[in-house]
Amino acid sequence: MMNKFLAGVCLLISAFAMAQQSSYSPYSYYGLGEQRFKGTAEYRAMGGISFFADSIHVNLQNPAAFSALKLTTFSVGGTTSFADLSTEDMSQKAKRTTLDYLAVGLPFKKGGAVFGLMPYASTGYNLVNYSAMPSGDSTRTYYEGKGGINRVFAGAGYEITKNFRFGLSFNYNFGTVDTESREYIYGVQYGTRESTSSRLSGFSMDAGITYEGKIGKKLRVYGGLTYTPETKMTVKNQRYISLIEESNGGYSTIQIDTANVANIKVKMPSAFSVGGGIGKPRKWLVGAEVTFRNTAGQQSRFGSYGNVQFENAIKYGIGGYYIPNYNSFTSYLSRITYRAGAKYEKTGLMLNSKSIEDASGTVGLGFPVPGLFSNINLGVEYGKRGTVYSGLVQEQYVNVSIGLSFNDRWFLRRKYE
Fold first, then answer.
1. What is the distance between the alpha carbons of residues 300 and 266, in angstroms, rounded to a whole number?
2. What does the buried/exposed string (b/e) look like for 134-147 if buried means 16 or more CB atoms within 10 Å of the residue's CB?
3. Do 378 and 358 touch, CB atoms closer than 8 A?
4. In whole angstroms, what is the distance from residue 137 CA to residue 301 CA?
5. For 12-118+149-172+206-231+268-408, which CATH class?
6. Is 30 helix (H, G, I), strand (E, B) or coil?
7. I want to staple 180 with a disulfide (CB 3.0 to 4.6 A). Which of 195, 262, 313, 328 is the partner?
8. Per-residue pLDDT tens for 79-134?
9. Nearest in space to 321 (alpha carbons), one of 349, 372, 356, 363
10. What is the CA angle 223-169-209, rounded to 5?
11. Of 126, 119, 115, 83, the residue nearest 98 (C-alpha)
12. Origin, by domain of life (predicted)?
């Protein structure tokens, strides 16, 4: 059993490294890329709220919740995204499939530990721009980017009292982002190509607290705080300038030179979230959460942006779940968990003096596996990011997520030999 589990983990880690389709968003060019949701499918389906702990689901957003696990938990999840990218005069469809997280949770008497792997940020775009030069010549420029930053994490939570839990998670962030631009002038035989490869690495940490108290005999009140201090990420850059010639739908390199570009350090912004809610255990819950990120003054992977600006980011989320009858023996539909939520976010990115905003609604279902503590969680998110005005791009997207949570009792002492 253990050998099969370890083999499965190795295969999934390999798939994680190979299956990342990065991003379809042109906004992923800026900063550290498109910030990825760092939670599981079940929390994402509730608007991304993370202030409460669950005994059979790993809460990756608040490490204090690790101590609530009652069973050894193996969680894996992925998302397929469909998007329409629109400007004022044209549109294009995009699609990506990603593995979102891979985590193992181990419970202890008054605590729990979780380790795993997830993406932190993604870069992926393929654009073309046609423009006229002051001389009257026309140019055609292609912009391409791919790659991202992944995160290996390990953390632990502890139940301080019956009401309070505390936890810490330590992360190693690493990845490579490759970008290039190719420019052609009509009537000129050769074009130019500039390519940059950035290798990023750095450490970070997260701290969290959760609270759970009683209201009367049946209701519970929940609260949660998380804090991520600002850290630095090292960026090692390599840049090449090439003379190229178009051929057979592609291009061939005529000459290539190395360009000097400095290695830099960019900040991973600090973040703080606070949330709370009310509910009846194993029946229903509703709550809200707000997250602040100190993204003002963010840099690119290889220096400043010129007139592009960053402001502090803020995200609001509301959501909850409902279970008709957790212990029903006659109706499987009554044991399904029904989830819903919504979020609104100012991403922190400003282009042409316009804040890039993101808003979405979510729904989800949690299907218990008969005879086991395991479950399958599905979620659908519909949203919009950006705008077609001010020369920008609007992304209208649908994210379909699936998460698998396998739970079992490990490390039990045998009563009989």
1. 7
2. eeeeeeebbbebbb
3. no
4. 32
5. mainly beta
6. coil
7. 195
8. 999 999 998 888 889 888 888 999 999 999 899 999 999 999 999 888 887 777 66
9. 363
10. 15
11. 119
12. Bacteria
User: What does the alpha-carbon distance between residue 204 and residue 269 come to, in Å, rounded to a whole number?
Assistant: 10
Helix (H) or strand (E) holding 208: strand 191-215
Contact in structure between 101 and 130 (CB atoms under 8 Å): no
Q: Helix H segments across 186-331?
A: none
CB 49 within 8 A of CB 43: yes
* Chain CA centroid to CA 3, Å: 30
Compute φ and ψ for 123, nearest 5 degrees: -125, 130
In this structure, what are the phi and psi dihedrals at residue 87, rounded to the nearest 5 degrees? -115, -170
Strands (E) in 133-190, as ranges, are: 138-159, 164-185
Ranges of residues in the chain whose predicted pLDDT is under 70: 1-22, 133-136, 300-307, 409-417
Indicate yes or no: pTM above 0.70.
Answer: yes
379-383: long-range pairs with CB below 8 Å, 24+: 379/41, 379/42, 379/44, 379/45, 379/339, 379/403, 380/45, 381/44, 381/45, 383/343, 383/358, 383/359
